[in-house]
Each structure stands twice: as C-alpha cells, then as structure tokens.
Amino acid sequence: MAVLEIVQIGHPVLREVARNVSVEDIQSEAVQNFIDELVETMRAANGAGLAATQVARPLRICAVEVKAGNPRYPYKPAIPLRVMINPEIEPMGPATFLNYEGCLSVPNLRGVVPRYEAIRLRYLDRNGVPHEEEVKGVSAGTYQHEMDHLDGKVFVDRVVDSTTLCTWDNFETHHKAAFVEAITAMEKRLGNS
Ligand code: ZN
Asked: Do residues 146 and 121 make contact, with C-beta atoms less than 8 angstroms apart?
C-alpha cells in the first residue's frame, strides 16, 4: 500500500465529474487496492474525508472518517470509517447551517459554506452492498463536501461571503470559538449530543 499524492486546487482533475464504478469493478483487485490507498492517504493527512478525484482518479469513490480528537477538526463529532461508492445525497429539508470548511486540496484556507442540516445518503460499500442512512448536523456537512468533489466542485465555489476566507491560524485565533459555539448548539438541537 502506498500513500498517494493529494492534488491541489488548480489541478484540472479536481474539476472533473467522476464516473460511476460498476459493481463488477468494485470487486476488482485494482479498485480494492485503490480503496485501501485512499483510506491510508486520508489517515496520513489527518483528513476527515478524501475523494478519489483528490488523488487524481476521477471515480465516484470517497472515504469519510473522523476519530475523536482529529488534529485538523478537534470539534467534529466522530464518524466511523465509511467507504462510499457511487454515493447520492438528498436533502431532508430546506434547513441549512453555516459550516467553516477546509480541504486537503486547498492549502491553508478555510471559509464559511452553507450546507444542508439533514441529508439522506445512499451508497455502495466496498463489497458492493447498498446502504441508506440519515445524517444530521456537522457530519452531514462532511458528506456534502466529499460529494461535491465527485462532481468537480471545491468548497471555495460555495463560499457566499468571501470575507469569511481565512488561514488556519486566523481561524484558530479569530473564528473558531464562535463557530464551535454555533455548531455545539445545533448538535444539541438536532439531538446529536
Ligand atoms: Zn475537500
């Protein structure tokens, strides 16, 4: 297994719409090895998620995993590892929240992005088995961010107010406290914590 190179904003592959993976291809050694490498790369970079387009493979495969105390996102609720193939997201209502996002493909930049507060998620796992889940709150934002990558979108495309753009240090110093307060209240309201 190898840690793959994560491509950075400006690389054209980040703007490609990734193609679906057939159920037969999911079982192939090439795709199974690629999934292992995608997960290893996400973990090595302390990412909360990683999409195949970010390692220059335009396939509809992404991984999400948040362990307690993730150094990039210490406030994010834990998510057990999920490898999603051909994922689809459907909002469960019009409600949105403001998420302060960052991305392994956009070095040292964060910005505020509106995300649906509750989504229904459908995907195939790495054995080709279909799953359906409902996700609410901050974790719903994480899935929407990864799904965007598979459609050639990067979070900066969705930043409504460019004055929210900031470095990671300035997020820490000037914006983190208010953001954590807001999402903590949301998680409580949604019954996530
Ligand atoms: Zn990203």
From this structure: no
